[in-house]
Design brief:
Strand content: under 5%
Number of domains: 3
Shape: globular
Structural class: mainly alpha
Helix content: 55-70%
Radius of gyration: 23 Å
Number of helices: 13
Number of strands: 2
Strand order of the largest sheet: 1-2
Oligomer: single chain
């Protein structure tokens, strides 16, 4: 029952029979059906009514919070645009900036960042895109994000890196490098799903490029997405880069994976 506490008290009271007795009139819920309700908190400035005590006492109440690590797993598995994932990874505090006391109608949440991701797939003039991003996450974050986009646009194409055409990185702006890391993971997963014949060579270039151009944090992030989120089947016996990678970064990757 979504938005249960947005219903008027009289409507909430009508749910007593369903929640307590698991039936409505002559209809009885089948065995194995769990009753779950969701709603905004009273302080979230949503349309809510305080839940009557008898109804509230029939639930176990759990308050959810935004968590970057969980969002990262969801985002990379649901093709959220690399520029969005890269920016939020660089500025984790900007994933969620809702202030119940604020007056702005636009603010950053995981939902509104998914709107931004969808906007980036359209071929829009930059001024229009900036206005729409501001309408999703707020003007301040829109300016920061669009600046991030400008730098990201100067980075090499991930497919050129994985094919071996590009081996170095001239632009060292850190937030843009986060986007490139995510893009490389996307590209490598796509190649695996397409059963590309030289996939092991691409995987080798993936690790070599990160080790040659990225700081430890980014190398670990890329490896974690590839191994944990995408579960790519790297075969150490077929990767020339494996010994070098394992010796230098193995312990960090293991720690990062165990922490989650």
């Amino acid at each position: 029952m979504d938005e249960l506490n947005s219903a008027a008290p009289a409507v909430q009271a009508a749910a007593y029979q369903l929640i307590l007795n698991r039936r409505v009139g002559q209809y009885k819920l089948p065995d194995g059906v769990a009753i779950v309700a969701a709603g905004n908190r009273d302080a979230d400035k949503g349309v809510t009514y305080r839940m009557p005590a008898p109804l509230a006492n029939r639930f176990v109440h759990v308050e959810l919070r935004v968590d970057y690590d969980d969002w990262m797993i969801w985002a990379t598995n649901n093709q959220i645009h690399p520029d969005v994932v890269g920016y939020v990874t660089f500025a984790k505090q900007d994933l969620y900036d809702f202030d119940p006391k604020g007056s702005s109608r636009s603010f950053a949440t995981p939902r509104s960042w998914s709107f931004v991701s969808e906007l980036l797939t359209d071929d829009l003039p930059e001024s229009t895109l900036t206005d729409l991003v501001a309408g999703a996450v707020g003007e301040g974050l829109a300016v920061k994000f669009m600046n991030h986009r400008k730098v990201s646009g100067q980075l090499p194409n991930p497919s050129d890196i994985l094919s071996g055409k590009v081996k170095d990185l001239k632009t060292k702006e850190i937030s843009a490098m986060y986007s490139l890391t995510v893009s490389l993971c996307y590209e490598l997963r796509q190649a695996h799903e397409n059963k590309t014949k030289n996939w092991n060579d691409m995987a080798d270039r993936f690790f070599n490029y990160m080790m040659d151009n990225f700081e430890t944090e980014l190398v670990v992030m890329g490896a974690k997405i590839a191994l944990t989120n995408y579960q790519l089947p790297f075969d150490p016996s077929k990767l020339k880069s494996f010994d070098r990678f394992h010796k230098k970064f193995g312990k960090y990757v293991i720690t990062a994976m165990e922490s989650k």
